[in-house]
Design goal:
This protein is mainly α. It has 23 helices and 4 strands. The strands form 2 sheets. It has a two-stranded antiparallel sheet. Strands 3-4 form a two-stranded antiparallel ribbon.
């Protein structure tokens, strides 16, 4: 009778590396704490403490991620791989989320959705991204994808009194669900073909010496699974022709959330491309590489040509992001350590310039109705150079002009493609960059060479039988509730003081775009470590 307690005393639970697991713990605990604090009745707790607590959570997460660099380990029974690739991308997610918190400080979306819910969902989305890029298992991969996606569906619709925001959330939900379902089906077929959900076991099944392994490369089950997986990932990464949701969702979502999606979500999607195709199915590269190369080419052309005819800055940056996804996907195609390094470097360099551009849009939206239209930037160089210069640097960097970090990124990708015998794809990057000058330079010319439009008070259209009211901004899908809530209109001040935190973000991130364009070695070293983490060549 006494043997059972003695035996039970010797049973030990699974070993958990809490040091490697700490970023996940901080994000999960911080998100729950933010949600609880947001339920308090005090308006100060909701409006001040919640954003501060969110920023502290992200700051602690960044500290743990930096501390974990250059250490490689697997946790949760091998389901997650904590290495330099995962940690560097986690830094991108956390920094992007921190910028979104600052840009959301005085946004209507946060108050309408509830500060606790808004910021908690942001943290849970970062948590999902961290799981996604660390996944070493098909099940973990899908769980991470859903963890990052579901909060974003809600955040896109968080400005609930604005019809465009609700529409963007619904569109993202529908298209995202289609992408997730396609991916789930593809992953199921890969499991059926290889008999395993573990990345290493899948790679061994494809490249092993068994008779079954030799036949897998022509197995319709595996090939169909890889094809459907590419489609599922392409939806999330805004890869053409699966990009149709991107301009509408970017335009309708609250701008701080759009900035977060444009940087962090894209980094997560490309990161899982790297992890899955350059680890799990690297043995079938001769099959999937031509497919990805074709998609990259289509994406580069569609994204850059699509942006030429846009007047909304958020739609311009949406199509620009589609083109940029094509550049990043080109690095995945190569499947070499140099290609991985170039892709990771480009992901890092894409962060600061995009955040800077969206910060300027946030500032203009606060000052006038229709602030995301390119006409709102007219004369900005003369009136607000502290906003015009960050936008100028962002546009030049995205175009790949020398002395910016974007130029180094494109050069690195071209070098990797030429070394990997994809010179024609490198030429496509050059062609895409030339096309992109048509809209990037148009933005710059509008700011510095156009006269500002005369200050005319916008007119809100009649709502529920009431006459139009001059001097108040129009609200899409206006309602009596929205009319009452926004009777005061947007802040009228046109100065750096009125948007101090937004100007700070714009200047800081644009300065980083110039600094790392002149001194890129720190980022190059990080990218090199990420490449070694996947290839295992140290």
């Amino acid at each position: 009778m006494t043997a059972l307690p003695l035996a039970a005393a010797h049973i030990k639970g699974p070993y958990i590396d809490w040091g490697a697991f700490s970023p996940f713990v901080v994000l999960a605990v911080g998100a729950l704490l933010v949600l609880i604090v947001g339920l308090l009745s005090s308006s100060i707790a909701r409006e001040r403490v919640v954003p501060a607590l969110t920023a502290i959570t992200l700051g602690v997460t960044i500290a743990f991620e930096i501390h974990g660099l250059h250490h490689q380990t697997s946790i949760i029974s091998g389901a997650l791989r904590i290495d330099d690739l995962a940690l560097i991308l986690d830094l991108v997610f956390s920094i992007s989320a921190l910028a979104a918190v600052v840009l959301s400080a005085r946004e209507r979306a946060a108050s309408r959705a509830g500060h606790g819910e808004y910021h908690s969902l942001l943290l849970f989305s970062v948590f999902g991204m961290a799981v996604l890029v660390s996944a070493q298992n098909l099940v973990t991969l899908f769980v991470g994808l859903e963890l990052l996606s579901i909060p974003l569906y809600i955040l896109c619709a968080s400005d609930s009194r604005r019809a465009a925001s609700l529409e963007s959330g619904l569109k993202y939900l529908v298209i995202g669900s289609v992408g997730s379902a396609t991916l789930a089906y593809g992953l199921a077929l890969i499991y059926g073909a290889t008999g395993s959900t573990d990345f290493a076991a899948i790679a061994n099944a494809i490249t092993g010496n068994s008779v079954r392994a030799g036949g897998l490369l022509s197995d319709p089950l595996l090939l169909t699974g890889i094809g459907l997986s590419i489609v599922g990932f392409a939806f999330k990464a805004s890869v053409a022709p699966f990009h149709q949701w991107t301009p509408d969702v970017y335009e309708g979502a609250p701008t701080p959330i759009t900035a977060f999606m444009a940087t962090a979500t894209k980094a997560a999607a490309i990161g899982v491309f790297l992890r899955f195709f350059d680890v799990a199915v690297i043995g079938a590269q001769d099959t999937w590489a031509p497919m990805l190369a074709a998609l990259a080419t289509i994406t580069i052309i569609v994204g850059n040509v699509g942006a030429l005819g846009q007047s909304s800055m958020k739609r311009i940056l949406a199509y620009s992001g589609v083109g940029q996804a094509g550049y990043m996907l080109a690095g995945v195609v190569v499947g070499t350590q140099l290609g991985i390094e170039a892709t990771v470097f480009y992901i890092i360099t894409y962060l600061p310039v995009n955040i800077a551009a969206f910060a300027v849009i946030v500032a203009r939206e606060r000052e006038r109705s229709g602030g995301d239209d390119i006409s709102a930037l007219a004369g900005l160089g003369a009136r607000q150079p502290w906003l015009a210069w960050p936008m100028t640097i962002a546009m030049l960097s995205l175009a790949g002009i020398p002395s910016t970090v974007g130029f180094i990124g494109k050069l690195y990708l071209i070098r990797a493609l030429v070394a990997g015998d994809y010179t024609w794809l490198a030429i496509m990057i050059v062609i895409g960059s030339m096309i992109s000058l048509g809209y990037y330079l148009r933005v710059i010319a509008t700011m510095w060479m156009s006269s500002p439009e005369p200050a005319v008070a916008p007119v809100r259209p009649a709502v529920a039988g009431r006459p139009a009211v001059a001097g108040r901004p129009a609200i899409a899908g206006g309602s009596p509730e929205a009319d009452a809530a926004d009777a005061g209109g947007w802040p009228a001040a046109d100065s750096a003081v009125a948007n101090a935190e937004v100007v700070f973000v714009a200047v800081l991130f644009s300065a980083a775009g110039i600094l790392f364009g002149i001194i890129p070695s720190p980022l190059l070293n990080l990218a090199a470590h990420a490449g070694r983490a996947i290839t295992g060549i140290f």
